Amino acid sequence: MAYVGRNLTLGDRALLTVTGSTPATSYTLQRNSENFVPSAAQNLIVSVNGVIQAPGTAYTVSGSTLDFLGVSVASGDIDFIVAMGESVDVGTPSDGTVTSSKLSSTFHHENPVTYSDLTIAASKNSVVAGPITVTGTLTVGSGSTLVII
């Protein structure tokens, strides 16, 4: 049955196929004839003989291998496997690449800290609580306030 409604714009949903001898306890997941590696078993919907299988209970995934946990399943009994979108690993940002304007909440930094130079941008307010050391130049921009507690 075709999808009814607006086109899906989020996620990458894909119908997968399996390869391997049949019946078997494990198969290789494929998308467009290439091995497919889901980020987690929970990102798959697997139907066997009309029954949706529970990830972690009925099957697990390791790399591109779908394992039915020792239960032999014929490939013809697998109705469908749908990958429901993949999580994106953005990794860890490099030091000094995240600015305070990119943060969704208040910036916090634990003191004591030593700064070679410290600049408070124009029209910005800042609070320092606890000891800090500025070994170079302390600049408070026009219309800015720096409160030291």
Summed up:
This protein is mainly beta. The chain has strands at residues 13-19, 26-31, 34-35, 44-48, 51-52, 60-62, 65-67, 78-84, 113-115, 118-120, 125-128, 132-134, 138-140, 145-148.
What characteristics describe this protein?
single chain; 149 residues; mainly beta; eight-stranded antiparallel sheet; rod-shaped
Structural class: mainly beta
Helicity, in percent? under 10%
Rg calc:
27 Å
* Overall 3D form: rod-shaped
Name the helix and strand elements from N-terminus to C-terminus, one letter apiece.
EEEEEEEEEEEEEE
Oligomeric grouping of the chains: single chain
Fraction of residues in β-strands:
35-45%
Spatial gap, N to C terminus: 66 Å
Contiguous runs where pLDDT drops below 50 for at least 5 residues: none
Characterization of this structure:
By secondary structure, this protein is an all-beta fold. It folds into 2 domains: about 15-85, no CATH class; about 110-149, no CATH class. The protein is about 0% helix and about 35% strand. It is built from no helices and 14 strands. It has strands spanning about 15-20, 25-30, 35, 45-50, 50, 60, 65, 80-85, 115, 120, 125-130, 130-135, 140, 145-149. Strands 1, 2, 3, 4, 5, 6, 7 and 8 form an 8-stranded antiparallel β-sheet that branches.
Question: Which helices and strands occur, and which strands form pairs?
Answer:
Blueprint: E1 13-19, E2 26-31, E3 34-35, E4 44-48, E5 51-52, E6 60-62, E7 65-67, E8 78-84, E9 113-115, E10 118-120, E11 125-128, E12 132-134, E13 138-140, E14 145-148
Parallel strand pairs: 9-12, 10-13, 11-14
Antiparallel strand pairs: 1-2, 1-8, 2-3, 2-7, 4-5, 4-8, 6-7
